[in-house]
Amino acid sequence: MENLNEIVEFKSVPALVESMYKYGITKSYKAGTIILNENSNARSIPVITKGVLKVIRTEEDGREILLYYITAGESCIMSFMGGLLNKASKVKAEVEEDAEILFLPIEKVSSLIREYPQWLTYIFRLYHKRFEELLDMVNATAFKKLDERLLALLKKKVGVTQSSTILITHEQLANELGTARVVVSRLLKQLEEDGIVQLGRNKIVLKSHT
């Protein structure tokens, strides 16, 4: 995404985009960077202009599970809610693919809501999308086998990064699925034998996208 004018709700209101760039600060991050930690307070709202972020929930025993991805043109609805309500974050946001992010101060987010109805529509649309993604995750965790969830996650990664080569370790995949590394390694080996993936050192090539 070259700029925020490509967002559907913003196309007819260039003044909104101008205000966002005026009040916000743009920063670039490398993959693996944590931009929001659990139990921290969000002082600004991130809007992704390039790259991909992933939002993760950590349990008390240290296990992690991937909740959803944030791609260019989107923001983190959890940051919105936490920032506006002055609540500590319940999730962690990590850069999945080198990203460029526009950070909007919380106080400016509130004023933009009052001034531009399109901004509120944008927030509601994101909330609806994240809610559906979380429902899908709950459904998958409850009713799908782990091998199906693993393949679905690999396809999701290919979709958001637009690359069939996924740079990730078996341990990282296990964390995102909330399971053990040895289980993921066994399932990946089976996928490789089935001709669906090709395994390499800290990378996986998805050969079948169907």
Shape: elongated
How many E strands? 8
Tally of discrete structural domains: 2
Structural class computed from helices and strand pairing: alpha+beta
Oligomer: single chain
User: Which architecture name of the largest domain does CATH use?
Assistant: Sandwich
Task: Determine the CATH superfamily of the largest domain.
Answer: Jelly Rolls
Through-space gap between termini:
26 Å
Mean pLDDT: 87
Name of the CATH first level of the largest domain:
Mainly Beta
Percent of residues in β-strands: 25-35%
Range of helix content: 40-55%
How many helices?
7
Show unreliable segments.
none
Any idea what the radius of gyration is?
A: 18 Å
Q: Encode the helix/strand succession as letters.
A: HEEEEHEHHHEHHEE
Itemize the secondary structure elements and their pairings:
Layout: H1 14-23, E1 25-29, E2 34-36, E3 44-58, E4 64-71, H2 77-85, E5 92-105, H3 106-115, H4 117-143, H5 146-161, E6 165-167, H6 170-177, H7 181-193, E7 197-200, E8 203-206
Helix pairs in contact: 3-4, 6-7
Describe the structure.
- Helices cover 44% and strands 27% of the residues.
- The chain is α+β, with helices and mostly antiparallel strands.
- The protein folds into 2 domains: 4-141, Sandwich (Jelly Rolls), CATH 2.60.120; 145-206, Orthogonal Bundle (Arc Repressor Mutant, subunit A).
- The strands form 2 sheets. Strands 1, 2, 3, 4 and 5 form a 5-stranded antiparallel beta sheet that branches.
- α6 (170-177) packs across α7 (181-193).
